[in-house]
Each structure stands twice: as C-alpha cells, then as structure tokens.
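#structure-requests
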Amino acid sequence: MFGIIYVLVIRPQQVQAKKHKEMVEALAKGDKIITAGGIHAEVVKVETDFIKVKINDEGTIVKLSKDFVARKIEDTTAA
C-alpha cells in the first residue's frame, strides 16, 4: 500500500519540487517571472535568499523571497 502511495503521490511531488528549486536557482537578471501572488515581474538582481524584481514600467523595485517565485515566463517571441 505504501509503495502505491509513494509512486502516485510522494515521488511526483519530490520531482516537481526539485524542478522548481532548479528553476529558482537558475534565475538571472532580465528573466521574467510570475510570483505566487500573480504579479508579473522582471528580475533585477539575484541575492542569496531574495531576488529584487521590477514590478512596473516606472521602475518600482521590490525584494521578493525566492520561495514566492511561482514560475518563469519563457520568451516565446523569437525574432
């Protein structure tokens, strides 16, 4: 029974958490992200536990915990 639960629930969650951690660690200046709160932002500076992001065109920069990066927006507009 435990084996079935592990294969169907626990292992996929571990794989997803590992992919998310790798994505967050690979963030660099200029990457576009979506926060856990749904805010679209652009990475300005990556620090140890935080990232500084620009959240609007006026240049408002905020400090965001890496835990709250939901996903990276891939640039699909190839020239």
